[in-house]
Design brief:
Elements (H helix, E strand, L loop, with lengths): L2 E6 L13 H12 L3 E6 H4 L3 H9 L5 E5 L5 H14 L4 E5 L1 H4 L2 H7 L5 E3 L6 H11 L10 E4 L5 E3 L22 H6 L7 H4 L4 E4 L2 E2 L17 E5 L5 E5 L6 E2 L2 H15 L3 E4 L4 H7 L4 H11 L5 H5 L12 E6 L6 H9 L2 E9 L3 H4 L8 H13 L3 E8 L6 H14 L6 E2 L7 H5 L1 H7 L4 H7 L16 H12 L3 H14 L2 H6 L14
Helix pairs in contact: 3-4, 10-12, 12-14
């Protein structure tokens, strides 16, 4: 049996470590059940530097060193695999997760230290990799869902691995392998009073995938969206489309998992990591969240403050509060009241924009009206709606920015928008890839090393505004400074000849893209 070391890379270095890596926490017990010896070094939790990582890599004769994450962890992953191959050269280096699934050929080229890449869901593929390794003569070409190198160094991408159909067969996450004291210290989240006062929060995935086709979003092989295609050169590669295979745990599994987390670790708050919980509720015939709420109460997980109708007091309140994701067009008033009764304290809504014109271009399936309606309904139910907003969409202009500020003023929202970011695996990544490369002098890896959590601009895909302009415009929006917004529009029009063209009765010719900055 193999000795496996999981290394969780550093993510969001500017923030405290807040989330146990759920994928690793699920894979670990799957491997242990097959007899493998598993250890975890959580570099994100410890933030201890390269010296400690090197000590961990030397601490045993690891057969496999496994690392994974999303694209925003790429810088840390690159450092980890380079050190792994130097310090523990005999170990098989395996990488997986969204960062690799979105572009397996590019990643295998950028990271020659990676021996095997797991493309898409790893629940079946990674255990099979270890079985082949144990056999002593790994025939990687027979393992679905991986990328590997032939003896000549050529990268081979195998056919995709079918998704696991019965996700209730998954074990509970091995939370005890991670430094929970670090994560519990950072339990608070500025989404609701209950979230801010949380002392022992853990996160769970109750479902995989989303039915929507937002052009800025990715699913990366967990929602039936990924397929293998043959390129012009005859090589196999990934492609992402609109096919969906929606999977969700049964309400009984979800509630039993939460009860396990409370009984074993004393949790007082659960964060649902699901992409869109309302998708699952719709696919279940509008029963899923209602049944979860009923079972939550029957299992004794309903918070005492909710049951008794009193203000939340973390020193006295028994039970488990929770929060998750929602969608403006799929939520209902009855459902909101039902989940509030079970302890839901906040729902994150991807409102993105209040511009009806821009909304039609992003594939969200919502409108400014449904955004506002869901906001009112959620607040009326006693749940905090958390409005995510984005600026810098490809077709953003001054009118769309004003639409947002006007809506914020009318609804009493205080928002600092994220920036539209063409993450690998999204429709906009493929559409605007030439422009991305132009902004990084043709160096795709430079983009991967730079891409973050959309709180700052990396590759700008807005046709009208430069990155510098978007930073300034966002500040004007946040401060509701419509006077300066109007003045800058007049200056922008003057600089681009818009007013002169209009005076001459001509259609102004606007720049095809904002200048590089």
């Amino acid at each position: 049996m193999a000795k496996v070391l999981f290394v969780n890379p550093v993510i969001r270095e500017e923030d405290d470590p807040r989330h146990v890596p759920y994928g690793m926490a699920l894979l670990a017990p799957i491997l242990m059940k097959e007899g493998h010896l598993v250890q975890v070094y959580d570099a994100n939790a410890w933030r201890a530097g390269d010296g400690v990582l090197a000590q961990i890599l030397r601490a045993d004769r690891w057969d496999v060193i496994a690392v994974g994450g999303i694209t925003t962890a790429y810088r840390s992953i690159k450092q980890i695999v380079a050190m792994a191959k130097t310090v523990a050269p005999r170990a098989l280096v395996v990488a997986g997760g969204g960062f690799l699934t979105s572009m397996p050929r590019d990643i295998m080229r950028f990271l020659p230290q990676v021996d095997v890449g797991v493309v898409g869901e790893a629940f079946v593929s990674f255990p099979e990799v270890l079985r082949r390794l144990d056999a002593g003569h790994p025939a990687w070409g027979e393992v679905k869902g991986i990328a590997w190198r032939d003896p000549g160094g050529r990268v081979i991408v195998n056919p995709e691995q079918p998704l696991l159909e019965d996700i209730d067969s998954l074990p509970y996450p091995a939370w005890d392998l991670f430094p929970l004291e670090v994560y519990f210290k950072n339990s608070m989240a500025l989404f609701s009073e209950e979230g801010m006062l949380a002392r022992r929060r853990l996160d769970i995935n109750a479902s995989y995938g989303c039915s929507l086709i937002c052009r800025y979003c990715f699913h990366l092989g967990i929602a039936g969206d990924m397929e293998m295609v043959e390129r012009e050169d005859g090589e196999r590669d990934v492609a992402f489309g609109y096919k969906r295979e929606i999977r969700y745990h049964s309400p009984r599994y979800v509630v039993d998992l939460v009860k396990h987390a409370r009984d074993r670790f004393g949790v007082d708050f659960i964060g649902f990591l699901d992409e869109n919980m309302m998708t699952m509720h719709q696919f279940s015939g509008k029963k899923w969240l209602t049944e979860i709420s009923q079972l939550w109460i029957e299992a004794g997980l309903q918070p005492q403050c909710v049951r008794d109708g009193v203000p939340h007091d973390p020193d006295r309140c028994a039970g488990v509060h929770w929060g998750g994701t929602s969608h403006a067009t799929l939520v209902s008033e009855d459902l909101l009241h039902a989940i509030k009764k079970a302890g839901c304290s906040h729902l994150v809504y991807g409102y993105e924009t209040f511009s009806p014109r821009v909304m039609k271009t992003i594939g969200k399936g919502a409108t400014p009206e449904t955004n506002e309606r869901s906001l009112r309904w959620t607040m009326a139910a006693g749940i905090r709606p958390i409005p995510n907003q984005i600026i810098g969409f490809p077709d953003e202009d001054f009118d769309s920015l004003r639409d947002n500020v006007t809506a914020w003023n009318r609804l009493g929202l205080q928002v600092k928008p994220f920036f539209a970011t063409p993450y690998p695996g999204t429709e906009w990544y493929y559409k605007y890839k030439p422009r991305i490369l132009e902004q990084y002098d043709g160096d795709l890896e430079a983009f991967l090393l730079d891409v973050g959590d959309a709180t700052r601009i990396t590759a700008n895909i807005c046709k009208k505004f430069s990155a510098v302009e978007l930073y300034g415009l966002r500040e004007l929006m946040v401060h509701r400074d419509q006077r300066r917004l109007d003045r800058y529009e007049a200056e922008w029009n003057r600089l681009h000849g818009v007013d002169a063209a209009r005076a001459a009765g001509e259609r102004p010719v606007l720049p095809a893209r904002a200048p590089r900055v």
